Structures are given as C-alpha cells and as structure tokens.
Amino acid sequence: MPERITLYSAKICPFAQRTEIALAEAKAPFTRYEIDLSNKPEWYAPKVNPASKVPAIAYGGPEVPPDQPSPESIKIAESLVLVEFVADLYPDSGILPKDPVERAQVRFFIEGVSSKLIPAWYAYFLRNAPVEDFYSALEYIQSLLPAEGFAIGKFSAADIAIAPFLARTRISLLNDLGKYPEGDGKKVWETATTGKFARIAKYAEDLFARESFKETFDEEYVKKAFTARFSGLRSQ
Fold it and tell me: Is residue 193 within 8 Å of residue 182, measured between CB atoms?
C-alpha cells in the first residue's frame, strides 16, 4: 500500500496539473496544498523543493499539516517524474502501459510534446515568434496520433503530458492573451482546430472530456489568472 502523499500544486500551472491528473487516474488518496506562485511561502524551498517550483510531493513520513512538512518524508519534484512515480505506485492505473513497446511509444510522444510543442507555443505566446512554427509543432504531434482514441489508443501518461498545455493554449488564444498581434488569437485557434488539424482537434476534445482532466482543471480560475498575468504582454 502506498504511503501518505502530500501534493504541492498551483491551479494556474500546467506542469502541476499533470501530477493532479495522474493522481486522479490512479484514484490515489492525497492531500493537496495550493502554492501561490507569486508569493511562495518562505518554508517551501528549504523544506519541500529547493527549485521553488510546483509540482512537488512529500511522500511518507508522519501525518503533519502540509505547511509544516516533515523532514522524514521523501520530497520529489518535476511533473513527468511525478507522473511516472504515481504510475509506479499504482501499476494498475494504466498511466504507463505494461507492454514495453507501448511504454516506449508513450515516452516518444512525451518527448515530442516537451521538445517541439511546448517550446513552439511559448515562443509564439510570449515572444510573438512565427505562428508557423507553432502550427508545425501541432502537425508533428498530430502525425503521432492513431486514427482515433488517445495518443497510443488508450489513455496514458502521454495524454497527461499534453492535456494541460492544450487547455491553456485554448484559453490564451480564445481570450487573445499573448505577445502576438492583437486580434489574432481566435483566428489561430480556429486554424489549429479545423481543416488539416481536424484530428488533433478531436483529440483535444477527448482530452478535455476526460473525468480526470475535468476534476483537476478550474477553467474560470485559470482564465482570470492568465488575464491578470498576461494581458499586458503586448505593452512590454
């Protein structure tokens, strides 16, 4: 039986949501503690994660309040490490397939998300890099998808890795938040979800309909937080 889990998370953060989705898929009992990323507690870095980022997990140790983490618990950080950690704790969750070929396919898909899609999106969103680079990354991810279903057919860590980023991409574009030219957001989202991108559009719909995603995504909160944080990007 897995030991006590305390998750340090933040609703705004796509990396943190990855871990929350994994825990929801595993139906794992855990205590969640929200970290305000703009005003992190003084104890967080020295007692939980020296990098001062979320997500992080305190595993095991005595039962203590989340804001008083025990030195006896094991501290683990980084979203993809934590997704695999949850998969290892709950091997029947399906987060990581048992078949070695499927596990490799999951990791290959995640590599594409990490090395192509996320950098291309942030470059466009934060620096107004060419939108074609974002479309190219989407096209690459779409090329990895099967004709239907999730990234390898059944739901897995591959889908957990991408879902929070597609959701925040959608919010940013539909609300015209970013460094790109004013008014382009909705046009880009329409292009990215129609025509030659019909397959990845259906994939995104399936991801957003997954119970573990819906349970861990507060759309109104993220929209307000993104508006507060990014609405002034064009004036910088």
Answer: no
Provide the phi-psi class of 164: left if phi over 0, else alpha when psi is between -120 and 50, else beta. alpha
Please state whether the predicted TM-score (pTM) of the whole model is above 0.85: yes
What whole-number distance in Å separates Cα of residue 173 and Cα of residue 176?
5
Q: Measuring CA to CA, how many Å separate 229 from each of 71, 131, 183?
A: 34, 22, 18
CA torsion through residues 220, 16, 175, 226, sign = positive
Distance between CA 11 and CA 228 in Å, rounded? 14
CB 20 within 8 A of CB 9: yes
Measured CA to CA in angstroms, residue 203 lies from 3, 35, 147, 154 at distances of: 34, 30, 10, 12
pLDDT tens digits along 126-151: 999 999 999 999 999 999 999 999 99
Would you call 12 helix, strand, or coil by DSSP?
coil
